Amino acid sequence: MKLDNSVSAVVTGGASGLGRASAQALASVGVKVAIFDMNEEGGQAVANEIGGTFHKVNIMDEAGAEAGFAAARAANGQERILVHCAQVSKGGKTVAKDRETGGFKRFSTEDYEFSALGILVASYRMASMSALGMASLEPLEDGERGCITLTASAAAQDAQIGQVAYGSCKAGVNGLVLPIARDLMDIGVRCNSIMPGIFATPPMLAVKDRAPQIFEGLAASVPFPKRLGKPEEFGSLVLELNRNTYFNGQAIRLDGAIRMPPR
């Protein structure tokens, strides 16, 4: 896909971190970008910076997501690109010591369900809604109408202790990729996922401020280069996945060759 001002994109979670980097990368080559986020101040600031639009969207709300897509399309036209970075989840071990009782407690079904809704179901929601809109577009070269990029995680393959919900739901995101790509092959919409390792996003930078020794240890654990990933490196891969039409049905690690230990 040729990326220029004839193309529109929706980026979820675009107020910060990997979503912001994706929005910035797409805007840098002329793409018209709509940012979906719950952070109004941050999202509007990024939209102003890149000349895009901001729409307050809760990815866990069906009607709200539909309204967000409608508003983005009214502003920028039907998107050919979706980059889905937003997610919400909870952490905890399947069974852990209960400090209050001295016994054990389990990670509740309700907390697991919340994580599944915030990661896996939300990924399907955003991908399917975007694909439905893309189906109406005139095809480009090779019959392509659009490209969907989902955000999984290195934890999809080597989740750590306390990541039973996060890791399994991110693995589920990778599980969406091939069937979605096959479902959408006849309308020319591609689907891929990126599995980022440890990136210098706001939560990790907060660790640097609070516990620099932990941050330095995380950086040293990356085989090469021995640092956290830069959000702009994620954005660069987003551009390539959209430009290169032969990327389809792929789940790609972007992690400096790290393989996460149990803890």
- Low-pLDDT windows of residues: none
Globally, the shape reads globular
Distance between the termini: 41 Å
The major beta sheet can be summarized as:
7 strands, parallel
CATH fold category name: Rossmann fold
Mean pLDDT: 96
- What topology, given as strand order, has the largest sheet? 3-2-1-4-7-8-9
Q: Please give the CATH architecture.
A: 3-Layer(aba) Sandwich
Task: List the defining traits of the structure above.
263 residues; 9 helices; Rossmann fold
Provide structural commentary:
With 263 residues, this protein is an alpha/beta fold. The protein has one domain: Rossmann fold (3-Layer(aba) Sandwich), CATH 3.40.50. 45% of the residues lie in helices and 16% in strands. It has helices spanning 17-28, 40-50, 62-76, 109-134, 155-158, 164-183, 202-210, 212-220, 231-243; strands at residues 8-12, 32-37, 53-56, 81-84, 95-97, 104-106, 146-151, 189-196, 251-254. The strands form two sheets. It has a seven-stranded parallel β-sheet, sandwiched between helices. The protein has a two-stranded antiparallel ribbon with strand order 5-6. The longest helix has 26 residues, at 109-134. It is globular. The termini are far apart.
